[in-house]
Fold this protein.
Amino acid sequence: MNRKLRVIFCLVILSNLGACVGNMNPTGGNSKPDYPYYISTQPIIVKKITIPIGTKLEYEEQYFKSGQQDSLLNEKKLIGIYFPKDQSMNWAGVPIGYINKYFNSEMKGFSVYARFKQLPSNKQTHFSQLWQECNDDLGISVKNTDDWSFNLNNIADIDSCSVNYQRYFKDNLPQQHYLDQLYQEMRKAGRVK
């Protein structure tokens, strides 16, 4: 084999080897880690919420635990509650499908995700209509992170509604006004039984 062919052959081998090594990440590069989770087999109370059978409870990464678990893990390590598709939780009159703890550990709260398709038109409120305007999750700051229920005494504020409305942008008056109005309407909707 002449020198030129050997160089080309080596380059092809090395480039293929590099591609193989680059793909050896078990989580697939940017994919989500295999967090430990538990699927409820009976109704239980978690974070002061009664969850139905079939609810997925997802926990932060832990040594020697990944994927589905046979029993509940420590509630302090809970990062997400995912309700079955046909059993949403009522959040101030809006059906929600899941709740995720804030990723930033310095922030006390969680995000709630609506299932607006499960909200009958005759059950619409000003709160649900405002929430649908941003059509994304609500960021909820709380006083006690052990309580993820719809507890008006624990809810401190609505921090965000999608990336378009954020408390972080204090100088943006339209954003602050929208979040203030959303918070007030949520409190009104939560008092109606």
In short: The radius of gyration is 23 Å. Residues 159 and 167 are 5 Å apart (CA to CA). Confidence is low (pLDDT under 50) at residues 10-27.
